[in-house]
Amino acid sequence: EVQLVESGGGLVQPGGSLRLSCAASGFTFSKYAMSWVRQAPGKGLEWVSHINSGGSSTNYADSVKGRFTTSRDNRKSIVYLQMNSLQPEDTAVYYCNAPTKGYWGKGTLVTVSS
Questions:
Q1: Res 111: pLDDT
Q2: 63-93 pLDDT, tens per residue?
Q3: Could you give the CA distance from residue 71 to residue 69 in angstroms, rounded to a whole number?
Q4: Could you write out the three-class secondary structure of the chain?
Q5: What is the percent of the chain with per-residue pLDDT over 90, rounded to a whole number?
Q6: Which of 15, 25, 59, 109 could cross-link 50 (Cys pair, CB 3.0–4.6 Å)?
């Protein structure tokens, strides 16, 4: 059974940091690119970041570039999203996604508020 399980969300003050993790199982994680996608309250899905299968190439949405960093550990089958300088507009449910396989996690909520 394929599973993507996100963790690390929570409440953080503006300017703070969080690191999200997504643990994968049930497929050969190291062969596939991974993405993070978010959905703010009342809004649609927004692509956040992408990392290739080997971890050597990353891409980011303009809204998070310079603040967020994605990485992966293929030995542990985990993809990470380090989020710094968080702002209220970053409040959302964050999902990890294997885009070419159509696999999605259930998401983790990040709330940025004072």
A1: 98
A2: 999 999 999 999 999 999 999 999 999 999 9
A3: 7
A4: CCEEEEECCEEECCCCCEEEEEEEECCCHHHCCEEEEEECCCCCEEEEEEECCCCCCEEECCCCCCCEEEEEECCCCEEEEEECCCCHHHCEEEEEEECCCCEECCCEEEEECC
A5: 99
A6: 59
Tokens of 105: 């996690």
- Check: CB of residue 37 under 8 Å from CB of residue 48: yes
Query: Which among 83, 92, 91 is positioned nearest to 20, based on CA atoms?
Result: 83
The position carrying tokens 């993790």 is 21
Residue 90 phi/psi, 5-degree rounding, is: -85, -5
Closest residue by Cα to residue 88 from 114, 62, 67: 114
